[in-house]
Every structure is written in structure tokens, then in C-alpha cells.
Specification:
This is Radical SAM protein. Its cofactor is [4Fe-4S] cluster. GO terms for molecular function: catalytic activity; iron-sulfur cluster binding; metal ion binding. Keywords: Iron, Iron-sulfur, Metal-binding, S-adenosyl-L-methionine. The protein is α/β, with parallel strands linked by helices. It folds into two domains: about 270 residues, TIM Barrel, CATH 3.20.20; about 70 residues. Helix content is about 35%, strand content about 15%. It has twelve helices and 13 strands.
């Protein structure tokens, strides 16, 4: 039974409350430090990367924050006294269209707590998307969160109206999930990825799917998280995996547990990027003896310091796959180096610096027509875990 506290019915108050509480779900947010923008009327608007690479402002909101579950980390867990609210599908669809027609948003990220029997709650979420597509002819981006308990027919229906869908895995194994969400079924959540893959093969999931981990609440290691992420990218063609550093919420069983450093979250994103964009395998990600990432250095730099036999590389000859393994050189900088080489430009340290603010980090790892720009890198500080506050 649900014991949630006072219920909010006013539309404006719902927008304030459910827009604010959607911030806990990162699957619709962006990575790279772009700020969350508070809407003047109380909603939350996020810059989101679309499947075609464009970034647009998206209203991120919950259909409801009333929940029948008791996840130990969650602010919306049943029994926690707090304000509760639920949108009727029609009123949320009208609200979104009002914001869209005023030019404030171009897309919708819709999630929800499980506020009633899961299939009925999912049905209401799909109704919002269906109204936007059929009644209001909205052509833009819609991201729908799939509730963990629903069957394939609901996932298939959601894919008809959504650009992208997602389900929160939360933890990397059944054992870890039981520690923070004992009512959730890890196997049933993971089977959604098989369904997503099938829909992608059939061309019925245009923008792919995403998922999210709650980092550190269940005592899991970065090794365990990244191993699952690598499988999701390699075997299921996931679009993105998101990482949310656990922060305690008053009134939950984990309220006295210390929060997880956002540096850990940041390093996970960097390691994720190496797997997703740089061609690194999971086995190549450098980890400490305890199974976690180094906090004092980014994983790409740690990998480079652990493989001195790989460096320095000749900037005028190295192929793209080699260049992107150099600390400070990302995909865009590597492409620009190749472009300059095709144009016959003599690449010097000064030219490299103009290609990006991080390029100077690459100098110790490069040769410029056989010459080093700076003295060879050293390794003594690799294991010094001094992290900026």
C-alpha cells in the first residue's frame, strides 16, 4: 500500500514538483558539463543530444512521483513522507505543447515512478506520447522510460511513438540490485535489452536505447559496472549508459551512508567514452587493485603511462586509431590532424595547440618529424590518489 504524504493537484505545482524530481534520472541528460536550466515556471529543461547529433532543449519530467516500491536510495520510495503528484495524460500533453509552441522546448523526456499497477502506469505514459504524435502532430524528440515490470507488448507500443526508450538497470548484478532495490527483478530488467535489440533489428527503435547505474550505493566496483556497460554496447548496441553517483536522501534506509564522489562518476564517463568512442576494449581499461578506476588521473592517461612501449608516436604518420589513444587527442583533434596532413601542413607543437585546449597534454607522447617537443613522461605519480576537492 502507498503511504506517500500530501497530494498535489494544482497544475502549476505539479510542474514544479515533478519537473524538479526528474533530475534524479540521468538517462535523458547530457554529458560534458552542460548546465541544467531551471524553467521559470518550475519545470526542468535540459540540453539533450539527439540521434542525429543536434542538441535541443528537452522538458524532463515525471508523470508521477507516487511509488509502490521501496528502493532504499530513492526519494520517491513508498512510505517516505513527501509531496506527491500525478499528471493525467491529457494535462501533461497539453502542458508540453504549450511550452513547445512558445519555443521553450523541442523535446520531451518522460519518466515516472510506479504509481499503480505497472502496466496501467506504463499505459498512461504511452498515452502522453500517443497524444503528442496523433492529436497534436508533434514531430520532435520523445524519450520514454520503460517501467521494469511491463511486458514486451508495452515496450513495442512505446517504440511506436518514442524516438528513444530506456530502462534503468541501477546495478551491475542481481546481488547488487537486491542490496538497494530488493523488490526489483534484475533478470526481468535485463531482458528488456534483448527486446530493445530486437526492435532495433526490425527498424522500430529509431533513436536506440539508454540505461543508468546508481554508482556506489550497492558496494559494486567500477570493474563490474564497466563490464556490463561494455556488453550493452557490444552485444546490444546501446546508445548510452549513464552513471549517477549515489547521494543519500533523508528519510530513506541509506540516509546515513556517505555520498559517492562525483569524481568517481566522472571517471566512469571517461572510461565509458574510451569503450564507446575510442576503440578500447573493457579489458584495456586500467583499474586499481581494488577494481575501481584511478581518481587522480583520467583512464586514458593511466593507460598511456602503463604502456610506454606504445609511445611516443609520430604525429605525421600515426593512423587515426593510434592518434586517439594519445592523451589529450580526441576524435575531432585526430580528424583535424589527418586533415592537415592531407593538406601538406607541417604539424608543430604550436599547430597542435591551436587544435584544442587539451592538445598540450599530448606533447610528451608525440614525435614531430622524429623530434620530441618535451622531455619523456615519467610514471612515479601514477599511483598517487590526490584528487581535487
Amino acid at each position: 500500500m502507498y503511504f506517500g504524504g500530501q497530494t498535489v493537484k494544482d497544475l502549476e505545482e505539479k510542474l514544479v514538483l515533478l519537473g524538479s524530481e526528474a533530475r534524479f534520472d540521468l538517462c535523458g541528460s547530457c554529458f560534458g558539463g552542460e548546465s541544467r536550466i531551471r524553467h521559470p515556471r518550475g519545470g526542468w529543461i535540459y540540453p539533450v543530444a539527439l540521434p542525429d547529433g543536434r542538441r535541443v532543449p528537452v522538458l524532463k519530467i515525471l508523470l508521477s512521483n507516487e511509488c509502490i516500491h521501496n528502493c532504499f536510495y530513492c526519494a520517491n520510495r513508498a512510505g517516505r513522507p513527501s509531496l506527491r503528484a500525478t499528471f493525467v495524460p491529457e494535462e501533461l500533453a497539453r502542458l508540453f505543447m504549450n511550452l513547445y509552441e512558445r519555443g521553450l522546448v523541442q523535446g520531451l523526456f518522460l519518466s515516472s515512478a510506479v504509481f499503480r499497477e505497472p502496466s496501467r502506469a506504463m499505459e498512461d505514459m504511452i498515452k502522453v506520447a500517443e497524444m503528442l504524435r496523433s492529436r497534436y502532430r508533434f514531430p520532435g524528440y520523445i524519450h520514454l522510460k520503460v517501467l521494469p515490470e511491463v511486458g514486451f507488448d508495452f515496450v513495442e507500443e512505446a517504440a511506436k511513438f518514442a524516438t528513444r526508450i530506456s530502462v534503468n538497470l541501477e546495478a551491475p548484478s542481481l546481488e547488487h540490485l537486491k542490496r538497494i532495490a530488493p523488490e526489483k527483478d534484475f533478470t526481468r530488467i535485463f531482458e528488456k535489452f534483448f527486446w530493445f535489440r530486437e526492435l532495433q533489428k526490425r527498424g522500430e527503435l529509431r533513436g536506440g536505447f539508454t540505461t543508468q547505474f546508481v554508482v556506489g550505493a550497492a558496494g559494486e566496483k567500477d570493474r563490474e559496472i564497466l563490464k556490463v556497460s561494455a556488453v550493452l554496447y557490444r552485444e546490444f548496441q546501446a546508445q548510452r549508459v549513464y552513471y549517477s553517483a549515489f547521494q543519500p536522501v533523508v528519510g530513506t534506509p541509506l540516509e546515513d551512508m556517505p555520498g559517492v564522489s562525483t569524481w568517481r562518476e566522472h571517471r566512469l564517463y571517461q572510461a565509458d567514452f574510451l569503450i564507446r568512442k575510442y576503440g578500447f576494449s573493457f579489458e584495456e581499461i586500467p583499474l586499481r587493485d581494488d577494481g575501481n578506476l584511478f581518481l587522480s588521473k583520467d583512464p586514458k592517461t593511466v593507460w598511456a603511462l602503463r604502456h610506454p612501449e606504445y609511445f611516443p608516436v609520430e604525429v605525421h604518420q600515426a593512423p587515426y586509431e593510434v592518434l586517439i589513444r594519445v592523451p589529450g587527442i580526441g576524435p575531432e583533434t585526430a580528424k583535424n590532424i589527418l586533415r592537415l596532413r592531407r593538406q601538406g601542413v607541417h604539424i608543430t607543437p604550436e599547430v597542435l595547440k591551436k587544435l584544442g585546449p587539451s592538445a598540450t597534454r599530448a606533447l610528451p607522447f608525440l614525435l614531430f618529424r622524429g623530434k620530441k617537443a618535451v622531455s619523456s613522461f615519467s610514471q612515479p605519480s601514477l599511483f598517487t590518489e590526490e584528487v581535487p576537492v
